[in-house]
Design brief:
rod-shaped, 134 residues, single chain, mainly alpha
Length: 134
């Protein structure tokens, strides 16, 4: 008789385990949110140029300055208004942190986005490289 009671208790525990496994709720999936990019209202082409002129330690700041310039500041249609943009190209190529690969990527990116100014971009890039070598 004791065996039957023991068997009954084991059977009930077994049923409870199966019910627990079947009806167990999976934990909710974590919600992944990407942070909103911070829009800096004070970001100007002049501030990006000053980063290129004064940054001497972090290459990533120079690379991010190029990305920001390419995305937020398209070259103007009027060639007379593009002098600040060429100044950016010059200082990017002149920066001691810019590698040859970075300079070539800069030229390709800006030339693709602004084919009208391809010759001027190359000219200012070469001036920057020459000034860097002096």
């Amino acid at each position: 008789m004791l065996y039957l009671i023991g068997f009954f208790i084991v059977f009930i525990v077994f049923i409870l385990i199966i019910v627990f496994i079947i009806f167990k709720k999976s934990p909710p999936a974590p919600i992944v949110t990407t942070p909103e990019p911070v829009h800096d209202g004070s970001l100007t082409l002049e501030s990006l140029i000053s980063i290129l002129q004064h940054e001497t330690k972090e290459r990533s700041k120079i690379e991010s300055a190029l990305e920001k310039m390419a995305k937020r500041f398209p070259f103007p249609e009027n060639e007379k208004e593009a002098s600040e943009y060429f100044k950016f190209v010059y200082y990017y190529a002149r920066s001691p942190l810019s590698s040859a690969k970075m300079i070539v990527n800069m030229q390709k990116l800006l030339t693709q986005r602004n084919p009208k100014y391809a010759k001027q971009i190359e000219s200012f890039q070469m001036r920057g490289v020459e000034a860097r070598n002096k």
